Each structure stands twice: as structure tokens, then as C-alpha cells.
Amino acid sequence: MSLPGERAKGGGRLSIGGSDIAVGAYYAAPVSSIRLEPFVQDHLGGFREMLNDPDVLRFTRMPDPAPDGFDRSWFAAYEQGKADGTRMNFAIVDGPARAFLGIAVAPSIDTAAGEAELGYVVAPWARRRGVATEALRQLTTWAFTDLAMVRLQLLIDVSNEPSKRVAERCGYRLEGVLRSLYFKQDLRSDTESWSRLAGDS
Ligand SMILES: CC(C)(COP(=O)(O)OP(=O)(O)OC[C@H]1O[C@@H](n2cnc3c(N)ncnc32)[C@H](O)[C@@H]1OP(=O)(O)O)[C@@H](O)C(=O)NCCC(=O)NCCS
Q1: Would you say the CB of residue 189 lies under 6 angstroms from ligand 1?
Q2: Please, what's the b/e burial string for 85-113 (b: 16 or more CB within 10 A of its CB; e: otherwise)?
Q3: Largest CA distance in the chain
Q4: How far apart are CA 151 and CA 80, in angstroms?
Q5: Ligand 1, atom 20: nearest CA belongs to which residue?
Q6: Cα–Cα dist 31/22, whole Å
Q7: What is the chain's mean pLDDT, rounded?
Q8: Which atom of ligand 1 is nearest to the CA of 53?
Q9: Is there an atom of ligand 1 within 6 Å of 9 CB?
């Protein structure tokens, strides 16, 4: 097990927007400085590194296994969604080097209804340091202020304890369990629906 500051196996560097950034290394910088930036093609290297993680494969809609070219089709789908206002994706980054820590997404946005689904993935090398909590806090603020959403929803597998903790700490409320929800490929799972409304305290 890696200790804070120690480089994990597989750590490396990527060039993002002209900056040399660290990926795949144990991440120990303060969470208060993390920020969301619109996901661009240069973030795909960090994104690809997360696709083999068992928790990403188990708890997100990323296909298991991710077929060749999945990263590019995922990116293209979000580019289309940005253009028509139905989706948005951010990279979670930190520091001047813009270290890639994960993604924060709105996989569906219904502007007319004022409703959006949100989601988040933190890279294995940056977990258990409050990164997801800070990312969801910022994503929620963005959705309420920039998009003027009224209702935000998170769909979380009943066994995904870390994600439920993140939702709770960001002011989301458990609404109930959607039983045997179709998730992906051969997987159906009991899925909790959590929501936060613009008027919630
Ligand atoms: C879920 C996920 C985003 C959490 O990211 P993170 O940056 O580690 O989250 P945070 O550090 O902000 O908070 C995690 C919380 O869960 C707790 N936690 C972590 N592992 C846990 C476990 N196995 N059981 C119970 N609680 C756990 C942490 O202690 C922390 O709570 P605390 O601060 O009150 O102690 C990350 O694990 C991940 O990307 N998983 C795979 C993808 C995924 O599940 N995405 C969410 C889909 S709904």
C-alpha cells in the first residue's frame, strides 16, 4: 500500500494543455485547491488510466471491459452533449500542474424540466482524501447557478458506501431504491436515488 507522497506503481506524466501533469501517482495535495475544468481531449490520457479500475467498472456505466476506442466515443458523446446542452463533463484537477484526479459529469441535462443527473469518478491514486466530496460540491453549485437547475439526481449502487457518503456530505437526500435497475451489459443492480433540490438547505 502506498503512503502519502509515495509514487504508486504505474505513475507517469502527461502533457495537458502544454502543462506536464502527474497521473497514476499517489495524490496527497490539499483538497481545498482542487477545481473543475471543462474536459478536453488532453485529459483523455488520465481518463484512460481509470478505465481498468475494478470500482470504476463495477459502479459506473463505463463498459466492462472498455472496448478499444471507448475513450474517444465517450469524449465524442460529451462533445455532442455540450453542443446541444444535454451533457457536460469536467476534469477534476489540482495545482499549477493541473494534476488529473478524476471526472465530474452531468450525463443528462433536461433544461426545460430544470433537472440533471450528476456523477463523479476519482482516480484510484487520489481516493479517500475528500476529492469526490469537493468535486460534487463544486459540480452541484455549477448546476444550480450556471444551469439554473431545480432538481439534481445521483444514482448510486446500494453497495457503494463511499459514494453514498459523498452524496450525504454534499446535502443530497436518499429518496429510495430502484430495484434491479438496468445498469449496463449483463448487470442489473439495486440502485439508490439521491436528490438535491434548489430550495434544500
Ligand atoms: C466513490 C468515489 C468517487 C469516492 O471518491 P473519494 O475521493 O475517495 O471520496 P471522498 O474522499 O470525498 O469521500 C469518501 C468517503 O467514503 C468513505 N469510504 C471510503 N471507502 C469506504 C468503504 N469501503 N466503506 C465505507 N466508507 C468508505 C471515506 O471514509 C469518506 O468518508 P469520510 O470522509 O466521512 O470518512 C471513488 O471511490 C470512485 O471513484 N469510485 C469508483 C467510481 C464510483 O463509484 N463513482 C460513483 C458512482 S455513483
Answers
A1: no
A2: ebbbbbbbbbbeebbbbbbbbbbebeeee
A3: 48
A4: 23
A5: 162
A6: 16
A7: 88
A8: 41
A9: no
Per-residue pLDDT, 19: 46
Give the type of residue at 109. Answer: I
**Does 139 fall in a domain?**
yes
Which cell numbers in the block locate residue 166? 459523498
| Domain count across the chain | 1
Q: What is the pLDDT of residues 95-149, one digit of tens each?
A: 888 999 999 999 999 999 999 999 999 999 999 999 999 999 999 999 999 999 9
User: Ligand 1: which of 50, 56, 57, 128 to mutate, most ligand atoms within 8 Å of CB?
Assistant: 128
Nearest to 156, CA basis, from 13, 60, 41, 34? 60
Distance CA 55, CA 16 (A): 25
> What are 85's three cell numbers?
446542452
Instruction: Establish if 7 belongs to a structural domain.
Output: no
In single-letter form, the type of residue at position 107 comes to P
pTM: 0.89
How much is the average pLDDT of 181-189? Answer: 91
DSSP string, 26-48: ---S-GGGEEEEE--GGGHHHHH
Ligand 1 atom closest to 154 (CA)? 48
Domain extent, residue 37, equals 12-197
The CATH number linked to 172 is: 3.40.630.30
